Amino acid sequence: MPMEMREIERVVALALVEDAPWGDLTSQVLVPADAMASAELVAREEGVMSGGEVFEAAMRLTDASVMVNLLVDEGARFAKGDVLATVNGSARSILQAERVALNFVQRMAGIATLTASFVKAVEGTTARIVDTRKTTPGLRAFERYAVRCGGGRNHRYSLSDAVMAKDNHLAVLGSGVTAALMAAKKALPHTVHVEVEVDRLEQIEAVLAGGADTVMLDNFSLDDMRAGVAQIAGRALVEASGGVKLEQVRAIAETGVDVISVGALTHSVRALDLGLDFA
Fold first, then answer.
1. How far, in Å, CA of 210 to CA of 178, rounded?
2. Other Cβ atoms within 10 Å of 212 Cβ, number
3. pLDDT class for 167, splitting at 50, 70, 90?
4. Residue 213 catalytic?
5. How many CB atoms lie within 10 A of CB 227?
6. Pairing mode of beta strands 47-48, 77-78
7. Mean pLDDT for the chain?
8. For residues 185-191, average pLDDT
9. Residue 212 near residue 193 (C-beta atoms within 8 A)
């Protein structure tokens, strides 16, 4: 599902104001007003494309006359040295928009590339790779979209989208978790999904008795994860979570879980090395 242009323009406009609240002083005093330029968005390393429309929006919202030609489809792989887009127009405008445009596309391509690595690692299993709410404040729509570009799926968008009881919720509820979940299920519309996090096998039955649709196994060992999957036995979806790393995700998927949530896709991703080279 693509991002809405309205959301792209809202976030990009804020970033442009932040970066040049009173214009680009350097370009204004050094670059002639009528100077024109051509530039290429070049990959310094291989990766997966995401953020082309955001890159274009940064240029267009700075100067509507700047022309951007996107050369690589979203979600497509590219090699080191590939030209991902070309930019033509006012030199001042391109220079002013450059950093904001690059910041977005580098981060989004980094997320897509990392996600693709996780998706490839679990290929052939039934597990799906999903993101979490550990996103950069204000950039959640962009980062979730980048996850999709990498072949991953999205978890709930916000606190308003689903019931998800985690360890701190359970600590408040104590032994009354089953009754609390049953009361919640009665009060909620039938379309609302209920997920509950557990960190011990002994918690699973109480959660299932309360009617949880998904049980999250948080920081379980592989042996306990296999035992949890067997215990749940199809009565709910099973999600694995907790510091999941690329080198261990295949083994996690092979335990039989349905979903693997990976906070690292967004909270600690490395921006991809992309550059804007002027001709």
1. 4
2. 28
3. confident
4. no
5. 16
6. antiparallel
7. 96
8. 92
9. no
Q: Which of 53, 131, 197, 239 is catalytic?
A: 197
Q: Quick check: is 197 catalytic?
A: yes
Beta partners for residue 48, in sequence order = 77
Q: Hunting for tokens 């999903």 — which residue is that?
A: 130
Q: List the end-to-end C-alpha distance of the chain, in Å, as a whole number.
A: 35
Arithmetic mean of pLDDT, 88-106: 98
pLDDT band at 32 (very low <50, low <70, confident <90, very high): very high
Q: How many CA atoms lie within 13 A of 191 on its CB side?
A: 2
Residue range 28-53: average pLDDT? 98
- Look up 99 and say whether it is catalytic: yes
Task: Give the active site residue among 120, 128, 156, 166.
Answer: 166
Report the alpha-carbon distance of residue 32 to residue 265 in Å, rounded. Answer: 42
CB 224 within 8 A of CB 217: yes
Q: Which of 9, 205, 218, 273 is catalytic?
A: 218
SS3 string, 51-73, reads CHHHHHHHHHHHCCCCEEEECCC
Neighbours of 78 (CB within 10 A): 22
pTM score, whole prediction = 0.95
Kindly report, residue by residue over 107-121, the tens digit of the pLDDT. 999 999 999 999 999
Tokens read off for 172? 């408040």
Neighbouring residues of 126: CB distance < 8 A, sequence distance ≥ 6: 253, 256, 258
Catalytic position from the list 99, 120, 128, 235: 99
Contact 256, 226 (CB under 8 A): yes
* Mean pLDDT, residues 51-67 taken together: 98
Per-residue tokens: 233: 């036995």
CA distance 149 to 1: 9
Query: Catalytic site residue 218?
Result: yes
Read off the pLDDT band of 82 (50, 70, 90): very high
The average pLDDT across 29-51 equals 98
